Amino acid sequence: GNLTQLSGTISPAGNETKRGIDLALEELGNKLGGVPVKYTVVDDKSNPAEAVNGASKLIDEAKVDFVTGLGASNTLIPVFNSFVKAGTIVVGALAGPEQFAGKECNENGFFVSFANDDWPAGVGKYMSDHGVKKAFFIGADYQAGYQHVEAAIRYFKGEALKPVYAPLNQLDFAPVIARIRAEKPDAVFAFLIGAGGIAFVKQYAQAGLQGKIPLYSEDPIANPLTFPAEGDAALGIIMGTNWTADLDNAANKKFVSEFQKKYKRLPATFAALGYDAIKLIDAAVRDVHGKIEDKPALRAAMKKANFQSVRGPFKFNNNNFPIQNIYIMEVKKDAKGQIVAALKDTAIKDRQDDYHQLCPMK
């Protein structure tokens, strides 16, 4: 099953995740571990109530063995327990609510993406490491927005101004930009997604702040999905991520090449994580020789993460969340004049989330 947002406020990420999932399934001949796949896609429409209905459909009607996608915290949180209690193996491909990394971890829940605080932890640390003394923080007004901003503040050692939270559908950021001017920070950290992120980036540049007050963020605000709308306004943004298109490993080179052939552009991180989710399941099913009804053996195979991640180093912690590098990338133009998010640095090597010690699993 693939339960994700294919319409609604934050659908661009969900659709891109699906492209990565679909590409991996195509490469594998629509088989996982050699076993033919029945693939059911459900659109949660970026709405928690729709997600609950979609979960019921996947559990009761489609009787899925695995569910992935799960792109937004506000739609994942209400359905996670329904899936794991039904014995469905959850493979989170994007959202990573911190409670499922900690006290509410579950042996049937595996997150191939990140804990919500992984990327912003890298950005907050990087800001401090590079001399930012005073920073302004703005986030999207929902669960992931709070968790991302709070983590960035926690890892930032300078003066953190009181954060601002913007509704997911907010498109006018003039009042926020006026506050930024008045506060005169050394830098701005923004976790905004979809149309709101695009609007903020464009208005930030139009207000003359681009290049004057550095803008730090994460992958959702500036990526191959948003570059056509943002144009040069995105240049100079520095972002945290766990994957970039220019990571030098064989799995990534194959993925990027195949994605470009199919979609005529570079993939966004969402696609890379969806692709990895399928490769993880494929490896686990192969390890148990297709006997997925043996749940203890299947869970043990999932835990081994016996696949080549497009990110490079990857393994699961005790809480079934990744131990992985957090990278820094910068939006710039490549040799052909195309806008890209290019690898700049490694902010944290072998990052472990802050919640794994709260998880009762060993």
Q: What does this entry look like structurally?
A:
- This protein is α/β, with parallel strands linked by helices.
- 38% of the residues lie in helices and 20% in strands.
- Strands 8, 9, 10, 11, 12, 13, 14, 15 and 16 form a nine-stranded mixed sheet that branches.
- The two termini are 28 Å apart.
Please provide a brief summary of the model.
By secondary structure, this protein is an alpha/beta fold. The chain is built from 12 helices and 16 strands. Strands 8, 9, 10, 11, 12, 13, 14, 15 and 16 form a 9-stranded mixed beta sheet that branches. It has a 5-stranded parallel beta sheet with strand order 4-1-5-6-7, sandwiched between helices.
List key phrases describing it.
single chain, alpha/beta, 12 helices, 5-stranded parallel sheet, 9-stranded mixed sheet, 362 residues
Number of strands: 16
Structural class: alpha/beta
Question: Regions with pLDDT < 50 over 5+ consecutive residues?
Answer: none
Oligomer: single chain
Largest sheet report: 9 strands, mixed
Strand composition percent: 15-25%
Number of helices: 12
The backbone outline, from C-alpha atoms, is globular
State the end-to-end distance: 28 Å
Share of helix among residues?
25-40%
Rounded mean pLDDT score: 97
Rounded radius of gyration (Å): 20 Å
The sequence of SSEs as H and E is EHEEEHEHHEEHEHEEHEHEHEHHHEEE
